[in-house]
Amino acid sequence: MKDDVTREDRVSNLKGLGCSRKRVEDARFTQGKGNYIDDMQMAGMLTGDFVRSPYAHARIKSINIDAAMALDGVIAVLTAKDLEPLGLHWMPTLAGDKQMVLADGKVLFQGQEVAFVVAKDRYIASDAVELVEVEYEELPVLVDPFKSMQSDVVLREDLDPKAPGAHGPRKHHNHIFTWEVGDEAGTNAVIDDADIVAEASMYYHRTHPCPLEPCGCVASMDKVNGKLTLWGTFQAPHVVRTVASLLSGIEEHNIRVVSPDIGGGFGNKVGVYPGYICSIVASIVTGVPVKWVEDRMENLMSTAFARDYWMKGKISATKEGKITGLHCHVTADHGAFDACADPTKFPAGFMNICTGSYDIPIAYLGVDGVYTNKAPGGVSYRCSFRVTEAVYFIERMIEVLAIEMNMDAAELRRINFIKKEQFPYNSALGWEYDSGDYHTAWDKALKAVDYDGLRREQAERVAAFKRGETRTIMGIGLSFFTEIVGAGPVKNCDILGMGMFDSCEIRIHPTGSAVARLGTISQGQGHATTFAQILASEIGISADSITIEEGDTDTAPYGLGTYGSRSTPVAGAAAAMVGRKIRAKAQMIAAYLLEVHDDDVEFDVDRFVVKGAPERFKTMGEIAYAAYNQAIPGLEPGLEAVSYYDPPNMTYPFGAYVCVMDIDVDTGVPTIKRFYALDDCGTRINPMVIEGQIHGGLTEALAVALGQEIAYDDMGNCKTGTLMDFFLPTAWEVPNYETDFTVTPSPHHPIGAKGVGESPHVGGVPCFSNAVQDAFRPFGNRHTNMPHDHWRIWKTANDLGLHD
Amino acid sequence: MTKQIITMTVNGEVKEVIAEPRELLIYVLREKMGMKGPHVGCETSHCGACTVDIDGKSVKSCTMFAVQAEGANITTIEGLGNPDALHVLQQNFKEHHGLQCGYCTPGMITRAHRLLIENPNPTEEEVRFGIAGNLCRCTGYQNIVKSILSAAAEMNAARPSSSDAIGQKTTEAAE
Fold it and tell me: Would you say A311 and A201 are in contact if contact means Cβ atoms under 8 Å apart?
């Protein structure tokens, strides 16, 4: 066969690993032809809308739906009483707790779902919501977890105060769990005897993932064939199907769950919300499709929040700065129901990654979960489970220790990094870090920003400020993070009992193109582009000839979904493995066609060649055709395969970030002068997509660090229910980021990739916060809590006497 | 509530639609006229996902009643380019990775289109200020800004003389 294309051309035609392939999703998105949940319209479809509680804690005396039902166009109004016979007035949470679907006798947070109106259109539904009369009796409100743990007021009357919860004994009727890792006595002994001890208490405030598209679904019960179809904004559609089956009693093969295009998730769309259950019930009752899409206020007030961790730390070190021990206690405010989205055995997620990137010989972590009258949740907002909290904690502890020792924080980090030769590294709190080269990354980052020069500039600025020549001070924010992503090994990670593997199946068509389906679902990450690149390099078919499909449980293999940066580490691995299965069969076909032994051919980019005779080959296209058009002895026809991948370990991406910030002490306005981000996510699949993920994650980090907060008053009123109050940065506030990288492949991942989507958020939040705090360090600051909005920055300046 | 017949020009076609006075333009466009490009993100004019172009201005269609659009000339993302001939902005958003989940994209491009008519040769700062009414949660804006600046450069390079408002010309061509 004539072949005048060079090998280099063949590699580049594949658009495989390492190529900044343009996204295949963009054609439809740029033309407004995406298909999001609210785009769905079906004949006879009804609209659902919630009556929500104005009170944070109240008993429900009565609900009168008569006036609402009398309104023309109202089909039904569901309350807990209607759901109770079906056993659906409560639902299990992902954290082993249960949550009211509709208020059962009382409400526990403002915005809680009380009744579900089903009407002919959204306007009639809204009118009917106003007409539902609910009589409340107010109860004392607890919004502070520390007061909640002291209070006689029982929030969860449904729970036996003496009985253990899902994660062991409960200390108090408003206590959820205690989770402990590490050696407390040993850690305390080390800290008590240490040369240097630094302490800090920090509050990682409550915030919210707030994707631009809110949550929603369309439920359609087809009574003719007995099938329920549920379309929705689900980051884990297969798990939703299993949960829907378990809750409704409908056999799983009769439920189809579909995630269409999703307008951002960031953790908000992992859990199951009352709107989904109510829509399903309403469709079963009415026999027609029912749509429920929340508005922005409902999204911010009732769907899963993130963080709300009160963290107390102690860190000890030798006089030379070598860290000897770390103690951390967290009071975790979970709101009214523990609706964290964590693997079952980890009630505080992977908070025990809080020893960070440092070789800390002994450590202890204790977490107490507490109920309050706030919205339920505790999801991982653009991070693997609670990793943002852990990394913020350790990166602040390092800074506080540096202050205690009067030492440079960059140098303190360098002294304590886990060394390259220590990997795989077993941390004091139980993780096996797969790989890393922290010193190289750190040195590269500090050199890139001319760290010493920055410190000189900062010192000059402090001097100028003290001389009264400027009212602007300068901060240098540092952070070095290690993430733990890609949950996870089935042996220790599950969601509601489902092991956290993931999957890919592929079918090669006779003419050499292919369709591949995975158990994950993109919410903007670009899976249709990047998974095809992994497959292209594995099977020698151009990424442009591979269609990627996700999110339809009737067609895709079972998988645990997309969150916790697990798509590349787990489903990406499954894609690589399924490609290798295809290649193995292709090798046999090629050998048959070339009339040589299987071992006498080898794979080369897009073909199998006879070893030592590269002019004798069969392309993957030829091999695919042969799989369908001729009988090959000993082989089944066709060319397809499936792989379920159970990762042997998590992956541990890391990175080094530096932020240079100016702060106007009189207005409290911070200006980001420079942000440098070095990420090591192992093998890089698509540099363009990686860079985009980093820009986005950093911007969400900027938001959280500098103002984004879900705040409550003492009455439990949510004060941040609109985008007027809840900070989403605009293009005006966001800087240009400088991105950089090192490559330390994961030793256990088939292609060495580690995941990257959440790294910039995890590393970015402490970096922005450290920049603010570092600016005030020369004036005596040790620690101030986020979010560093203008008022709080001004207050810090004022407290330090900078306005005197 | 009494319904009214509203006449408006949408993407160059004169259309009649029946709606109650309280119906918001965004829902009428999306659900009664099939223009699903503009999205609903907040219903309070903050996010800009619903941005459309009305009589030469960028308008957040979630806070305008459909009846207020009587007689208006409306352009949505569907009116900017088509599968055979993408608008320069659409091409550049793809080229420079100016989108991820795509939810803000139609509003963002529609806004950028008007911005480049108002200011065919903007600085980066002017672009950032000009799109500050459109929120994006995914991209951090860096590549959106890059896409818009690149589109402006491309449109200016194609422009026959410097006095033309090239954005308008391109729009006409696309329509």
Answer: yes
For residue A181, the number of C-alpha atoms closer than 13 Å in the C-beta half-sphere is: 22
Question: Between β-strands A363-371 and A377-379, what pairing exists: parallel, antiparallel or unpaired?
Answer: unpaired
Strands B57-60 and B51-54: antiparallel
Alpha helices in A557-677 (DSSP H): 573-594, 620-629
CA atoms within 13 A on the CB side of A529: 24
Amino acid at B20: E
The whole-angstrom separation of Cα A648 and Cα A440 is: 26
Is A213 close to B103, i.e. CB distance below 8 A?
yes
Average pLDDT over residues A609-631: 97
Of B42, B76, B94, the CB nearest to A26: B94
CA distance A714 to A350: 31
Pick among A23, A24, A29 to test the B interface (most B CBs inside 10 A):
A29
Please enumerate in sequence order all residues whose Cβ is within 8 A of that of A157, keeping only pairs 6 or more positions apart, or say none.
A105, A106
C-alpha A103/C-alpha A110 separation (Å) is 12
Burial of A51 (0-12, 13-18, 19+ CB in 10 A): buried
The answer to whether A345 and A492 have CB atoms below 8 angstroms apart is yes
- Which pair of structure tokens corresponds to residue A23? 């996204």
Question: What is the rounded distance in angstroms from the CA atom of residue B173 to the CA atom of residue B175?
Answer: 5
Is A212 in contact with B47 (Cβ distance < 8 A)?
yes
Please state the separation of Cα A612 from the chain's center in Å.
49
Residue B159 structure tokens: 């422009």
- Whether the per-residue pLDDT at A715 is higher than 60: the answer is yes
Is the distance from CB of A215 to CB of A273 less than 8 angstroms?
Answer: yes
Is A456 an annotated catalytic residue?
Answer: no
Of B20, B86, B138, the CB nearest to A524: B138
What mean pLDDT do residues B2-7 have? 96
Instruction: Confirm if A390 and A354 have CB atoms less than 8 A apart.
Output: yes
Name which of A379, A459, A407, A436 is nearest A710 in CA terms: A379
- Provide the b/e sequence for A116-128 (b: ≥16 CB within 10 Å): bbbbeebbbbebb
pTM, two decimals, is 0.96
In this predicted model, what pLDDT tens digit does every residue of A424-465 receive, in sequence order? 999 999 999 999 999 999 999 999 999 999 999 999 999 999
Q: What is the dihedral of CA A277, A283, A289, A291, to 10 degrees?
A: -30
**Nearest Cβ partner for B141 among A523, A688, A734:** A734
Measured over the CA atoms of residue A106, residue A107, residue A112 and residue A114, the dihedral's sign is positive
Under an 8 A CB cutoff, do A264 and B44 touch? no
pLDDT tens digits along A764-802? 999 999 999 999 999 999 999 999 999 999 999 999 999
Which pLDDT belongs to residue B167? 44
In the structure encoding, which two tokens stand for residue A483, read together? 């993430």
In three-state form (DSSP H/G/I as H, E/B as E, the rest C), the secondary structure along A248-311 is HCCCHHHEEEECCCCCCCCCCCCCCCHHHHHHHHHHHHHCCCEEEECCHHHHHHHCCEEEEEEE
> 3-state SS string over A64-110?
ECHHHHHCCCEEEEECHHHHHHHCCCEEECCCCCEEECCCCCEECCC
Nearest-angstrom CA–CA distance, A296 and A487: 30
Please provide the size of chain B in residues: 175
CA angle B36, B38, B41 (to 5 degrees): 115
Query: How far apart are the C-alpha atoms of A173 and A185, rounded to whole Å?
Result: 27
Q: Which domains does chain B have, with CATH numbers?
A: 4-78 (3.10.20.30), 88-157 (1.10.150.120)
Find chain A residues with C-beta within 8 A of B81's C-beta.
Answer: 31
Phi, psi angles (nearest 5°) of residue A438: -70, -40
ipTM of the complex: 0.97
Do A700 and B142 lie within an 8 Å CB cutoff?
no
